[in-house]
Amino acid sequence: MANKGPSYGMSREVQSKIEKKYDEELEELLVEWIVMQCGPDVGRPDRGSLGFQVWLKNGVILSKLMNSLYPDGSKPVKVPENPPSMVFKQMEQVTQFLKAAEDYGVTKTDMFQTVDLFEGKDMAAVQRTLMALGSLAVTKNDGHYRGDPNWFMKKAQEHKREFTESQLQEGKHVIGLQMGSNRGASQAGMTGYGRPRQIIS
């Protein structure tokens, strides 16, 4: 991890493409939300993906963010009093956040991997996970989200409809527009298929 040398050739191209996906405006929004959600004692990172990575790397701020989305009695992630300094403890803290985020409802496809954050390999994936978490918090609307609800998109919610038996029977007698129109089309003016073309000189 710490002894990893620079990448060259194809690896460098791939890493460069991944780094271009990082959005600095989105970083500002996410920092603003995290500070509002967790309180000003979490501080603010230096601008850019490296500052954002260093700020979140030990997993403590992510854990505080996750806990702030739950009521006081049921915090899903244990936050240590002193930030962990050992590498495996930091990675374990990030993994606990990811498990809690999955339990909260963030899909596996929206999750980053621990190394994406810890080694700074894909900070855009970290942003995607935080965006998905924010969207879920806004959608749940359970009173634990702090911040502007317009910062995140609301997730689509199920909207069940109940029909009576008589409504279902009436629906069977309606010709749907998917079947085509039941008026307007006629064969008036059509010529027979076998007639030769009439050329008059």
Automatic annotation (TrEMBL):
<dbReference type="InterPro" id="IPR050606">
    <property type="entry name" value="Calponin-like"/>
</dbReference>
<dbReference type="InterPro" id="IPR001715">
    <property type="entry name" value="CH_dom"/>
</dbReference>
<dbReference type="Pfam" id="PF00402">
    <property type="entry name" value="Calponin"/>
</dbReference>
<protein>
    <recommendedName>
        <fullName>Transgelin</fullName>
    </recommendedName>
</protein>
<dbReference type="GO" id="GO:0005737">
    <property type="term" value="C:cytoplasm"/>
</dbReference>
<dbReference type="Pfam" id="PF00307">
    <property type="entry name" value="CH"/>
</dbReference>
<keyword id="KW-0514">Muscle protein</keyword>
<comment type="similarity">
    <text>Belongs to the calponin family.</text>
</comment>
<dbReference type="InterPro" id="IPR003096">
    <property type="entry name" value="SM22_calponin"/>
</dbReference>
<keyword id="KW-0007">Acetylation</keyword>
<dbReference type="InterPro" id="IPR000557">
    <property type="entry name" value="Calponin_repeat"/>
</dbReference>
<feature type="domain" description="Calponin-homology (CH)">
    <location>
        <begin position="24"/>
        <end position="137"/>
    </location>
</feature>
<dbReference type="InterPro" id="IPR036872">
    <property type="entry name" value="CH_dom_sf"/>
</dbReference>
<keyword id="KW-0963">Cytoplasm</keyword>
